[in-house]
Amino acid sequence: MYDRGLGVLEQYGLEAKSVARGRGALICETQQGLKIIQEYWGSPRKMELQQKLQSQCREMGQIQVDLVQSNLEGQVITSDKEGIPYVVRDWFWGRECDARSADDIKRSVRAMADLHTVMQMEPEEALAPFDLVEECQKHNRELRKIRKFLQTKKRKNEFEMRMAKSISMFIEQGEQTVNQLEHSGYGQLLKKSQSSICHGECNQHNVVFTEKGIAFTNFEHWNYGVQMADLYQFMRKMLEKHQWELELGNEMLRAYESRRTLCPEEIEVLKLWLSYPWKYWKLANYYVNSNKVWISQKNTDKLMQTIALMIPWKRFLKEFGVR
Fold this sequence. Notes:
The chain is about 50% helix and about 15% strand. By secondary structure, the chain is α+β, with helices and mostly antiparallel strands. The protein has two domains: about 5-90, Phosphorylase Kinase, domain 1; about 100-320, Alpha-Beta Complex (Aminoglycoside 3'-phosphotransferase, Chain: A, domain 2). The longest helix has 25 residues, at about 160-180. A five-stranded antiparallel sheet has the order 1-2-3-6-5, with no helix packed on it. Strands 4-10-9-7 form a four-stranded mixed sheet. It has a two-stranded antiparallel sheet with strand order 8-11. It contains eleven helices and eleven strands. Helix 3 crosses helix 9. Strand 9 and strand 10 (about 215) form a beta hairpin. The termini are far apart.
């Protein structure tokens, strides 16, 4: 199983000199540099557009991205002898962004702003832009359904008891966010962002520090939409690890704006994105889709941490971005 997918390199005219495991992938050193091989079960058209987008990023700026490779027949998806589809991309020697380092965090955010500047592409009719309002409304319905289930359940484990006691205040926060979004400039901003592209999964694992600068990897979740989605996602990941430290949040915002100035509507929407209880919803969603007889202590601990962070989180939201 170790070399599963390795055979597709032949269809690229490549040969692996060494092979190592990555996250669900194989990282290979070849005569054309480092490559990564990964299964891909998504849309061929979207992968073709991803290649076009990444090529554009390289041509228009000094941004390093893990460019999708075409095989010898000019195709971006290659099947092995068993019919399993794979994608081969350029890869990088380097290290991931250190979430404990304020310097790494600010450098990553500045690079993200540079990436956003060149991440523009004509809209594709089949790829609808991400709608934040619809997503939050959907999650609120899911949370209310989970609350109703917990209210009717008589015997509860520790996870369920803690969620039953806390879920209403997170639902209230989620509903408040939707109400504010509906009365914000988000709708107009979304209309103006029809050609704007988001990376879709901006976290510390997909920001790589190399000798040639910062590289962005794993674009599989890219989408059209308001680019504040990427900044929000990266900021939330960092701020959760730093107890929602206000100064760090403001430093990230300043770092981004040092490369790409934000309009008032973008700052407003960024703040609203940060105000939705995403982490709590994720835990609740995991619970409802799991075997409810047994919940791991790890997830119970995550729930307790999320509840404990509500006070610093609310304090952060009150003061963040004030000018």
